[in-house]
Amino acid sequence: MSWFRREKKGISTSTQEKKEAPDGLWNKCPSCKKALHTTDLEENKWVCMYCNYHLRIGSKEYFNVLFDNNQFTEIFPNLTSGDPLHFIDSKPYTSRLAETTQKTGLKDAIRAAHGKINGEDIMIACMDFNFIGGSMGSVVGEKIARSIDYSLKHKVPFLMISKSGGARMMEAAFSLMQMAKTSAKLALLSEAKIPYISLLTDPTTGGVTASYAMLGDINIAEPGALIGFAGPRVIKETIKKDLPKGFQTSEFVLEHGFLDFIVDRREMKDKIADFLKMMKN
Q1: Would you list which residues are annotated within the binding site for Zn(2+)?
Q2: HSE, side-chain direction, 13 A CA sphere, residue 121
Q3: What is the pLDDT of residues 22-35, one digit of tens each?
Q4: 30, 78, 212, 220: least buried by Cβ within 10 Å?
Q5: Residues in the annotated binding site
């Protein structure tokens, strides 16, 4: 006869007393795969504490990182895309817009706001990849144009944070026209000698790279960001050759002269403030 006797089988905790871990409490680094506590990750500017991988973040997080005390005035918040081509792929474009807006809480793939960075006035337009891949449609181009107009009127520097898969196919030529529109507006900013800083984040591709993302007085990028026009797979299939190691990373782009600096996100605010003071003087 065994000396051990089990009185109760299984877990005795009642269902009412069980507690589930809250959603969003943990993240996993896409690079090193380690678990990251959300609070610690936010304090570290959404950079992995173990491998320094820069996680993708949106306009809400960038505004929090850059603006003093997260205080800013958002402008043109209610611009929304139309459907000039009555476009339908797997679903109508209008349905896709409505679903994405409901899911993300965003009106389109960009937000624009005015505030201060270390006491320096600045106008920031920031793209959101979660809204249809950060694609550049008519609203993106219009918000950038209006942001530049705001900078011209109030004589404040302009910072563009790019994060995009390229032009929005649902708007076809209307999307492609934004490349010329934003570039022309930036030329006016240059003539007025108002600084324009372009920050390229992961990923910055397509028509965005071919227009306003590469036209900064200073072009900077985050470490490890994918920067290019066509994707690596498309290029490899076209030229029928293997691509160099690290092709289209921000480090590769810097080495080949298309960037001025790579800046860690944790140092981004101070670096941009230094650039603004330098250009102002």
Answers
A1: 29, 32, 48, 51
A2: 9
A3: 567 899 999 999 99
A4: 78
A5: 29, 32, 48, 51
